[in-house]
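Methods: example folding runs. The two proteins below were folded one after another, and each record is reproduced exactly as written to the output file, sequence line first and structure-token line second.
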Amino acid sequence: MGQTVRSRVHSNLSVFNPITWLLTALLLEPLQAPIWAAAPPKRARPPHFGKSITDVFFPDARAKLVGPRPEKSGSTSLPPSASLAPSQSAGAAQGGPWWSKLIAADVVEDEIKAQQLELGETVQTVSKFKGGDYQRARLHFSVLATMFAIDAQYDGALRWQREAPALRDLMARAGFNCKVGTDGSYKEAKARYEDLQNLVRGSPMQAPSAGPEADWPKVADRPPLMKRLEQAQQQGLAVWSASAGEFSRHADEMLHEAQLIAALAEVIAREGYEFADDEIYRGFALAMQIQALAVRDAVEQKNYEHARQAVGEISKACANCHEGFRN
């Protein structure tokens, strides 16, 4: 009897021998890993650049460089304009791009006038404003603030440049406050609309002083700017490039919207905006900007086929970006 009990105890100890257990665990671990491993995150596909873009750049830039390589500094991060578009970084002025390479002065002025007119429709009555027009007002104020921010930094003569920094801040505050429709936000929106009316009519404006530098996320939220980009692409360029006849009839409008897209693509990739630190996101913004400038050039050259192709590439960049980064 005692011998039988000892045999059973010895047998059980053998079964739970620590060494045996450890070896068994190591053998089973590769089989269990796929069960417990986390699935890789799904992200948008990287942008595909066609021949019209790849031909602009050297296959290997190192083969064209002359002289010793610069010493590596403590920081390897690039400024927003350089990380977005290397071709622009050489022309950076006062911490920003040469805006004139992206958008003409008359386009900035015309966009301000157009947004001012549309803003007037949203502040006609407090009841309409509270009923939903405050959302439209938010879009108009956001675009206006962005245009005045560009105006303040513009590398050339541009109307309202002296007042632009103060107007940028006033429009920005009104835009952020128009996230809701209240008596307070309506009163402010109405006052800013009257300021704009006086400005367009040529009346002098008394406004607090401000510098030309812009903290872009405080100028305008990203969603309203994305909405304006969608309008320019879907309701503008995509429609006007559908046929050669539409292309000819709307050449001036295409020039305006293409340059607006190029400028807004620069803004939404600036430091501080959501996803601006993501290389893929910035790649989509760069692709959109390059193709928008290609549309501008094609319209000026009256080349319908090139314009149509560039508009198609803008549509692809927008669709791929929305797949992975849309809020």
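Second run, written to the same file directly after the first:
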Amino acid sequence: MTRIVVIGADAAGASAASQIKRRRTDWEVVMFERGQITSYAACGLPYWVAGQVPRQDMLIARTPRQHRARGIDVRLGTEVVGIDPRASSVTVRTQDGQESIEGYDQLVIGTGALPVRPPIPGSQAPNVATVHTVPGTQDLVDQLTRSGSAPRRAVVVGAGFIGIEMAEAFLDRGIAVTVIDQATHPMVSFDPDMGAVLAESMADQGVACAFGQAVREVELDEAGLAQAVLTDAGRYPCELVVLALGVRPNTGIAIEAGLPVGDSGGLLTDRRQQVRDHEDIWAAGDCVETYHRLLRTTVHMPLGTHANKQGRVLGLNVAGEYATFPGIIGTAITKVGTAHLSRTGLTEAQAAQAGFDAVAAKVQTSVIAGYMPNPGRMITKVLAERGTGRLLGGQIIGDRVGAAKRIDTLAMAIWTGFTAEDLTGADLSYAPPFSPTWDPVQTAARRLLPTI
């Protein structure tokens, strides 16, 4: 019997295991998970903290019992602590410390990523949290809902996706929040001018913004709890701290086994998700580097969308079919309160670094027809290559539902090689409750035309 060993039971690993078992019912598929939860929606964790998602179980896409009912041997509380590619085996350790050797015919690595926790003095205090796993987030929710001792002030360190989503969560809870970041604007995956728009919106909604400041220390009280965050420019009192400084690939055991990794530490695979130079080892999700279609190199860009798609591709290939993962262009979307924001492709700085001669245009429009009730406001920025007119990137910030999701139009235009002229003439839908006569992304593309 062919034996498949899967390390990790979240998006990539569980998707791969399900695809394999569905097609090869006679194969043994063993999935090792060091925790007690499988297939959870990590992107939903901030909304659980906010109270928008009322219960933990609503974030679980498939339980261990459901996986087992489909024939997958799920082993919880069992961590893979070593990989031996030559022996085609892994070393596993249970929660009681017992170790054993498990052989495989094909190995699937879906170990995900780990939160970045720099050695900031005081950052190990019990009321300093990260939002990364269900148990860790449960601890945070417990602190927020504890009767009589819920925090009144919170500090979020980091103004990326998780950082601003946590700012919204604290606003929803009625907790005063300060967001600190050493960058001069939030969301460094946006251009600075668009980041400035977001910073203004956050401040207008009551978020205290401390940008351009490096954190030096988490100040502790006599009980060893965080009571303030100290930067090189100020002191910010609080009863709760959330570190939202990004993640790094969880590839320690893979590196020890001599598997190839890129500059980020993410595993390097081919388009089928097979680890380079290892015919019986595969990897997908937040532990890998992924090919960027515009930069033409591999990057670490952890997102649940990529993890699920890569897991599916991996599973199909292991099961004997053929599939490839086509790469990414960096499309993402989120919100903080009334600010809805999204991006795709390259920023101006990324385009310049990659050697493109790029031009940009930015327009402000209503989200829907301006004469309709609550038409909203959105700022759309697009980027194209001078000479060819090929679209390279786009960013949107709006204050109404329906604004940021328009990034998908730009994403598909970039994905398929559209020029600004192509997008300007594209047949997009129109009705006053949904859009102005000229869709904002087309208005922005049209603004580019004289400069290309």
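Comment on the second run: The chain has a mean pLDDT of 97.
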